[in-house]
Amino acid sequence: MILERLAKNWWVFLLRGALAILFGIGALVLPGVTLAVLVLLYGAYAFADGIVAAIAAFTKRKAGEAFPWSVLIIGLAGIAAGVVTFMYPGLTALLLLYFIAAWHVVRGISEMAVAVRLRKEIQGEGWLIAEGALSVLFGLFLFFRPGAGAVALIWVIGSFAILSGVILIALGFKLKGAKRASA
Predict the structure, then answer these.
(1) For the segment 130-140, what is each residue's pLDDT rounded down to a tens digit?
(2) What dihedral angle (degrees, nearest 10) is formed by the CA atoms of 70, 75, 79, 82?
(3) Could you tell me the residue range of the domain that residue 116 belongs to?
(4) Which of 4, 94, 139, 180 is 20 to 30 Å from 86 by CA-CA measure?
(5) Would 141 be classed as within a structural domain?
(6) Number of compact structural domains in the chain
C-alpha cells in the first residue's frame, strides 16, 4: 500500500532531488550568498518563534494560574535575536559559527572522556577517541579560521544537498519502475 502511494507520486522525488541539486550547486558556486540567506532565515525563524511564544504567554489562563514569565522571556529573547540578526547579519553569522565550534570542542572532549572510561568494558574505543579528536580539531579550525570555516560549512551543506538530490532522483526512477511493474 505504501509502495503504491509512493510509486504513484514518483515525480515528487524527482522534483525534490532536482531542487536539492540546484540548491547544492548554488551553495558551492555562491557560498557567501548562501551563508547570508541562511543567517537571514535564522533571524526570521527566531523572530517568528519569539512572537508566537510571547503571544502564548498572554493567552487565556485558568483562574489562579501564575503568569508564565519564562515563556514571555523566551519570546522576547527570540524577538531580540531576530532583530539583532537583521541589524547585524555578519556578527550573527560569526557568533553562530563560534557556537558550532564550541559545541564540536565540548562534544569531542566528552566523547574522548567516555571512551577512556569505557576502555575496560568495550573494544574499539579508539574509534570514539578518533571521532572525538576529529570533532575537537574541527571546532578549533572553526575558532581560528572562522572565514574558511564558514565557507567549509557551506561546502558541506552544498555537497550534502547534491548527494541527497542524486539519491532522491534515483529513488524517483526506482518508484516509477515499481509503478509500471504493479500496473
Answers:
(1) 999 999 999 99
(2) 90
(3) 8-182
(4) 139
(5) yes
(6) 1
